[in-house]
Queue: 4 jobs
Job 1
Amino acid sequence: MIKLYAFNELGKADHGWLKSSHHFSFANYYNPQRMGFGVLRVVNDDWVQSGTGFPTHPHQDMEIVSFVRTGSITHKDSAGNKGVTPAGEVQVMSAGTGIAHSEYNLTKDPLTFYQIWIEPNKRNVEPRWDTKQFSNEINTNGLPLLVSGFPEDEGSALFINQLARVYGGVLKKGTRFTQKIEQQMYVLASSGSFKVIDDQTEVVMQKGDGAEVTLQKTITIEVLEDSEVILLDVPVN
């Protein structure tokens, strides 16, 4: 089953320097029907003005994935990690026993990125931060694996403390492929337009949309125009 959540139906926040669309309840946006999707707790589609950002703030026992779409994030945390993650790269942070960090857009252009929070399957782990650049080639037969907590994916993807997988990248117009689903899947349309098809349903996703896919072992994606797509295969609980 596929359930579409159109961009204009998402929770909205406008702080001037930060504009955010919330796929699930977050901060001042509360929807009791949208508290998460299995262990996927937060998906924020954020726009951050040049020269601004998130001052130092704490996190604990959460796996935080940032998928940078345009611009770059400058990160610094209480564990001594610091770095810049530009568009085309992904960063992960295991908050574990507790970590404080800041994230700023120190470029001259706006930053856009997906902020994704996944509940861990191990608590009180040592905090960690990592980033990785993946191929920026346009894909024609599927999406590369970016993040995973499965042992067999070690070395090929960024690690998180959860048996989840995150796939993402740009797909060329006309591409059609079948994606295996290990558990249940949340689909993000970062840009472009594409169809998501299962045994009974077919939906068209546009930039900014999200979709839940449940009770399926596979979905088919048919790309209508060059599109950036993110797939989150996550446990039910």
Job 2
Amino acid sequence: MTSSGPRLLALPSPLEELVDDRLTAAGLRVLLKRDDLIHPDLPGNKWRKLKHNLAAAAAGNFHTLLTFGGAYSKQILATAAAGHHFGFNTVGVVRGEEHVPLNPLLARAAELGMTLTYVDRDRYRRRAEPSVLRRLRREFGPHYVIPAGGANDLGVRGCAELPAEVTEPYDVICCSSGTGCTLAGVAIGLPAGRTALGFASLKGDFLAGDVAALQRAYGRPTSNWSVDTEFHFGGFARRPPELVDFVAAFRDRHGIALDPVYEAKMMAGILALAARGHWPRGTTLVAVLG
């Protein structure tokens, strides 16, 4: 890395109790792990996933980072921000066609110096194939590849560091799950007797297999985690009225603006499961925001 990096990172991220009569009625305590406050440009699991990848890129003497994502991918923006703060050039390979003007996320990535390139959905699905990677190297020169969502063994390593930051007694850590990298890492880092629960933000039953594969790649498969696929609200980036209403109500009640793509689905799931008596009274949950 060729610069001193961003201003001071808020690590460990704050732990705040969520006071909510619905949780009290269920006999539960919920602590919010405020990873969303780590840094405005590098919030939450994005910093955790990038941390060791940035070190590997610097150690390999790479000057360019290349990553993948959709038009509203936080991975695209976080990689652009990491490049800006740590002195890397950045390339974002975006799924789909270019739309002008750029949406606010891509516009901010471009403002931070990222070169954006667009591929069709078929080529995006084949992004890990050698032929696709060779073509990208020819086009953009030598670069360090960070996979979509930061989901590799180094991303898992960064997420595995999260449980050690939780100093209050707890039983379960909950997180929102896209690629499954955060869940894979958190489960690896858990002390004995604790469990992790991931709330899928995408529709489908593939996530458990992805989490298991990431843990195997890291070399530490565990059995202390599970995936809930009920609260996807129609699929990735879908915003049905009930989800929009939930985000607004949560903000009014607690002063926290939840990300509707990820954390809002997790919190909606936690409250719904609490109402059903899913956890025994006296259980303490840690919900990761960011």
Job 3
Amino acid sequence: MKAMVLEKPGQALTLKELPVPVPAAGQVLIRVLACGICRTDLHVMDGELTEPKLPLIPGHEIIGTVAAVGAGVDAISVNDLVGVPWLGYTCGKCRYCKKGKENLCENAKFTGYTIDGGYAEYTVAYEQYCFKLSDQYHNAASAPLLCAGLIGFRSYHMIDAGAKNIGMYGFGAAAHILIQIAKAQDKKVFAFTRDGDVKSQSFARDLGAFWVGGSSDTPPGKLDAAIIFASAGELIPKALQDVDRGGTVICGGIHMSEIPAFSYDLLWEERVVRSVANLTRQDGLDFFDLLKSITVNTQTELYPLSQANEAIARLRKGLVKGAAVLVMDAK
């Protein structure tokens, strides 16, 4: 099979011909249809996430069909359409798993980071973290739902249900999915982009943002809550300044640059800052259940597997409108 491989952080991916993997007990072999490129992949490639399996096949927004199953697999069958997210394995035995907080599992494994991912024609995944999908998701445009969608959804549900004015800082793959859910639920979205990023601001307006501005701009009213998808730590004090009393600031990424010092008055009046860590299987079930009643259309740029480096370069430069997705035709 063909695969794009990371040999060392900081280097470009290498196209290689590798053996098709064999599923172990509890695993399934997946013929990959498409795999989204997430900003977390960039953090892995750049060495900002410091414990990758090397060499590594990145990618954790996977859509594909099951080609074979390992011993003990009974809930998934050959030819099933499945999606594979970032969280790829949990032990079920540690103190967090026992408390129903599998997203914090002490022995977790992560797709495209500590286990090989979807920048390949085939991959293996643990049955417990494969979401069975209906045929409507049998397309490359569905791939971003497996991380941008799921993490955005988990972030969104950390906000008080009564929040109406919601800020989204960093308007990329996750925000462009989440704004569609928020608008369907009668929320007003305030979209913050990089200062001067006319393309992203136009994209946010097209999707129905109530207000659009640069990250340093002051919105026309106080926010009830804010979600930060960008990895810029300086956005935390900015978002605290923008939210109203009792407001919540959610950090929706796995990596963030250093947060600058800020005065206590920004946090006072019961404002809250919290992070999002991974996801749970229930998040996936709830998210795809929600999509039965809310139509979400992803905006994607499609690239053949061999052009992964070119797609990554465009994502780094902020040139991708929506999400970049690798597509392949495994034989």
Job 4
Amino acid sequence: MTSPDLAALRPRLPSPLREIEDDRFARRGVRLLLKRDDLIHPDLIGNKWRKLAPNLTAAAGRAVLTFGGAYSNHLRATAAAGRLLGLPTIGVVRGDELAGRPLNPSLARCAADGMRLHFVDRSTYRRKSEPSALAEMLSAAGAEDAYVVPEGGSNALAVRGCRALGEELRGRADVVAAACGTGGTFAGLAAGLGGGQRALGIPVLKGGFLTADIEGLQREAFGARVGDWSLDDRFHFGGYARATPELDTFAADFEERHGLPVERLYVAKLLYGLVALAEENAFRPGTTVAAVITGAPFGG
């Protein structure tokens, strides 16, 4: 089998880097840049392109099977890639109680893009990294020969793919911040930055487990922990896909200030965290902070 021609999709790389004027940063002597990875490709947005592209090449034309929840950005991106490149895709969805129900808009988009959805119970889903459980899922989905991409797309190939994000920002900012889900994008970003630059991760899940996951991904991809990086776990707003009226108000205000549609699951929490840190004087005057905009609102 031959690898798909990803260059034919014409990604916009490097993605644009734009400075914005925001008094919450300016009055503390801090510059804010937005790294617009959401503009890389209209269907394979931001970190999804960077993580999926090397895995799609490795799939070499085979069906691609991957995992996600009912509102997974990763499932949607994989389904879109399958449509654009003519690859069969299978999505293993967490929650067998969803089977037989009308699909929500996110899963409906996956199905419309040709993804075959396979629902599994939550206990089975939690065991998806175990070889025996994975083999059973592949068999049940009729996809024994599929190329498997982990949940969120985070594996060594994806981490190496995201290293280019850090390389594009070398010499452009003192602190580079990104929201973190499974940690793959951040692991690569931190590895790609240059000396004197620091990566700051804002986890969108609660639990405090992500440091070990990111270190594991970096060891798998590069053989060791790489880069100057840290996480701030205070801005998850209750966990993945959780929000509060305060966060919604903040995101709407940011949109009005800067004309930027703010994706709520990741980007809103990142930007909220950076504003809070600026107000805490966490950034010295003269610091340039770059925020990675990893996605756009679904349907936006």
